[in-house]
Design a protein that fits this description.
By secondary structure, the protein is α+β, with helices and mostly antiparallel strands. The chain has 12 helices and 20 strands. Among the domains are: 114 residues, no CATH class; 70 residues, ATPase, substrate binding domain, subdomain 4 (Actin, Chain A, domain 4), CATH 3.90.640.10. Helices cover 34% and strands 27% of the residues. Strands 3-2-1-6-11 form a 5-stranded mixed beta sheet. Strand 19 and strand 20 form a beta hairpin. The longest helix is centred in the middle third of the chain and has 25 residues. It binds adenosine-5'-triphosphate and magnesium ion. Adenosine-5'-triphosphate (ATP) binds next to helix 6 and helix 7. Adenosine-5'-triphosphate binds next to helix 6 and helix 7. It is a peripheral membrane protein. Cell division protein that is involved in the assembly of the Z ring. May serve as a membrane anchor for the Z ring. Keywords: Cell cycle, Cell division, Cell membrane, Membrane.
Length: 463
Amino acid sequence: MSNKTLLAIDVGSTSITAVIAKNNPDGKINILGTGTSRSEGINKGSITNIEVASKAIKKAVNIARGSTSEVIDSSVISISGAYTKGLRSLGSVNVPNGIITETEINQVMQMALYNATIIPEYEVVHVLPIFFKVDDSKDVENPLNMNGSRLEVSVYIVTAKRTALTNVKSALKAAGIELTNFVLDGYASAISLLDEQQNKFGATVINIGGTTTEFVSYKGSAVVYNGFIPVGSNHITNDLSVMLHTPPNAAETLKIKYGNLLKLSDSDELSIKKVKIPRIGDEQSTTEVSLDHIQTIIHARVEEVLVLIKNKLKNSGIQENIGAGIVITGGMSQLSGIKELAMRVFENIPIKISNPINIKNGYMNFDDPTMSTIVGLLFYSLYENRTFELDSNKNLMKKAVKKEEIPVSQATKQTVVKEEKVSENANTKEPLEKEDTTRLPTLSKKDKGRGMSRFWSKVSEWF
Ligand SMILES: Nc1ncnc2c1ncn2[C@@H]1O[C@H](COP(=O)(O)OP(=O)(O)OP(=O)(O)O)[C@@H](O)[C@H]1O
Ligand SMILES: [Mg+2]
């Protein structure tokens, strides 16, 4: 395991968070410094002013640097799905020595990338395996050290508009930061949230921030889709400000203090409660507005965001396969009643509101939904025990082999069992056919009936 010092930066539209960290010898993440700054020059996931954004990034990074003298070896930054496109591809290679090593895994991933039709003005950010196939055994999760003569892979590729990436690089360069890797915001959030159970069955992770909503769908432990909507919690503030003629800071306070998506009953005292708010242009005078009215405005916007996500998932074919549930994070997930509203919108798909896995340290509270992306960036870069994948430099990220990892023969058996249990895998066609669409085939009725009821009861246990 590397013990290099990492600088991770989450460039959100509300705030910028920088963390300097490295791995302790025991494998735990050691936070050396943290810094935050108010976000400027960034809107809806894109850099709108390089100079201003660069200053804001530099401020957060300098605060983090203030608490450590360690030299930074590499840096990683989150990028928004605002300017990404996802596509699928396939690769296959011969295994000359009969045993699969990292060389063949790298070759097959590079081959899948080579076979993909990437739009000229786009660059690769991630090449993520959906499944490997060794000779005739399908759905191999980790082919390392397996015996076979042919290795195939099906991948999900995330690409991003070159100009948008160049703007991020320029802003970092102006702040004196050498960039190493880009990581998709939604993917980072998912890494920070999903536990082993969810990773086994798959889930859709939705990060609703200030001006963006990013989501990533997993099928089993593989990413199969990523999406984006340019709407977030700031839109609620804006709606309240415009409709109630109150300044944005008063609208933000109303949202945080009184935001509640659970319908108040008529007998509830709060339903007749009135709140005094300042008026735009004449802030000395106040008007009274009913709590019920405030909550109706908030409810309308949140419902709209959730319906937009649902439609995106539906149009990409993901919703048919979503069975494993939805995990919501990001600043807006703190709104009371969002779980109940999401359950209604997504028609009883299990919903969980989640904070990132807590990495305890004395500097910053990471047990907070606005920290999902930054925690994911740390896991992405410092934990090696994940999938084999190509990073934004097209380098293979290695998977650390754990001692308790299953031996070759058992590993093959296990994948067969898994296939029987969750038989909705869209990619069990044979032979592998090239697919360049992100639309997933839907579950057949027969398949749904067979494995799903057991699967559903399992899923409901942990949501
Ligand atoms: N209790 C709450 N209810 C609703 N919204 C909230 C609450 N607390 C914070 N927020 C909102 O969460 C947003 C900040 O969340 P977050 O830090 O996840 O966004 P960001 O990462 O900066 O933005 P983005 O991801 O869109 O670029 C702000 O709009 C803030 O008003
Ligand atoms: Mg964010």
